[in-house]
Amino acid sequence: MQGISTTSILLILGVYFLFLMLISYFTSANSKNEDFFIGSRKSPWFIVAFGMIGASLSGVTFISVPGWVTDSQFSYMQTVLGYLLGYLVIAFVLMPMYYRLQLTSIYSYLEQRFGVRSYKTGAAYFLLSRTVGSAFRLYLVVIVLQKFLMNDLGIPFAGTILITIALIWIYTYKGGIKTIIWTDTMQTASMLIAVCTTIYFIGDGLGLSLSGIFQTVSESEYSQIFFFEEGWSDSRNFFKQFFGGMFIAIVMTGLDQDMMQKNLSCRNIKDAQKNMMTFSIILVFANILFLTLGAILYIYASQHGVEIPTRLVGGEPKVATDLMYPTLAIQHLPAVVGVSFLIGLIAAAYSSADSALTALTTSFCIDFLDFDKSIAPEQTKKRTRLLVHIGFSFLLFFVIMIFYYINDDAVIEALFKLAGYTYGPLLGLYAFGFFINKGVNDRMIPIVCIAAPLITYILDSYSTTLLWGYKFGFELLILNGLLTFVGMLIVSRASGKPIQNLLSKYHF
């Protein structure tokens, strides 16, 4: 890195982690076991709103979204606009129900609505999705850390993973969500400062003012947002991305224990709704910043003759657009940009991984160990929760190592995509629960929820043949949820435990 020694980098990162540890120390003081799960339901809504930005963006957004601009322009904003509609559904349909039922794990709803097997199926799908998804996001970040920092220190890839996960465990094991609410705020700020710093210095290198940067980007080939011309065959089609974004927001925020756990830690439903609305508005501007960064990165690279980085895949070089930002930040721009990038990268990794580790621990303790029903002593529960927390830390380590040994981007991305299929059954389960005033044959629900993703995968694999050239994009999630919904209709029944349609209780 230009003008900065490895020792200086380690010192800067050490100071960063010192702040995380201090936050952990003060927020976890006198914490009870249940504070780990819901933070005593006293979290300030505005702190939750700002901190959720970092958890939503994650390392994938921090590294990959700027790289997408070269192929997809600003089409991702169509998905972001769809998020807004999804967040309205979360704020005024899902969250009132979660608060009314006083849920710690949001999947407890499925037990009350359908039965134990439906409940365990939904929770199991979350554990699978979040484990693979979190491992994938951490894997991308660890690759960058390994290439630009750890190799110089002689630390192997496995060591980098262990250090990364161990640090997360240290500052979350005691306070849990009570600590994460505040560390996420610091990490969100670090990410946004890194992006703004990079944009400023790239603009300076191009001789552009702040207004000149945005004018240059708006006039560039990368700035197109809306895509209607190519029709349904285009993966960037507005309607596919907008409605795909809406349902992605509903399932990956509203039906995700990780994201909802933060909202459930607010004082009341009104605060939680204010948090969600504020968060959604900030998120739109944050994504505009990341896409602007992507465009200005490629403009700078073109004018200064910087080639798009490559990585070896199967012995062959392959373009790696997700390395464009780190390459320019660390090797071609002033040292302050490299430092802010590294801090932002660490923040991006930790803002999603720390809350994921806490959410996985919460879901397993509540949904599978029945903490909310257990009469075991508090100390016994605390010891068990600690062991579960350690267990999921090691599980993340092993999944990341599997990605490392696969060493094939196409296979790894396919695994990540397959993990995304598991959100479809959650969409179908909750949609049926809200809109259909019937019970189901609870024993058949696991079969329905396995069949739906499999059928979705087959349709996706052969869509061009079966559907006259149609190619699926984000709307795969909708198809998956619809198949689950239809399967539940098939196994539904009017008899069983009395169930009232909850939708009538809430107002849009």
Describe this structure in words.
It contains 20 helices and four strands. It has helices at 6-27, 35-38, 45-72, 76-100, 108-113, 116-153, 157-172, 177-205, 210-218, 238-254, 257-263, 269-304, 324-331, 335-368, 378-406, 409-421, 423-435, 445-461, 463-466, 476-490, and strands at 310-313, 316-319, 439-440, 492-493. The longest helix is centred in the N-terminal third of the chain and has 38 residues, at 116-153. The strands form two sheets. It has a two-stranded antiparallel sheet. It has a two-stranded antiparallel sheet with strand order 3-4.
**What number of domains?**
1
Would you list the SSEs in sequence order as H and E? HHHHHHHHHHHHEEHHHHHEHHHE
- Please count the helical segments: 20
The outline comes out as globular
| Largest sheet strand order | 1-2
Could you tell me the CATH topology label: Sodium/glucose cotransporter
CATH homologous superfamily, by name? Sodium/glucose cotransporter
CATH class: Mainly Alpha
End-to-end C-alpha gap: 52 Å
- Main sheet summary: 2 strands, antiparallel
CATH architecture: Up-down Bundle
Strand content: under 5%
Radius of gyration: 23 Å
In total, the number of strands is 4
Output the keywords:
508 residues; mainly alpha; Sodium/glucose cotransporter; two-stranded antiparallel ribbon; 20 helices; globular
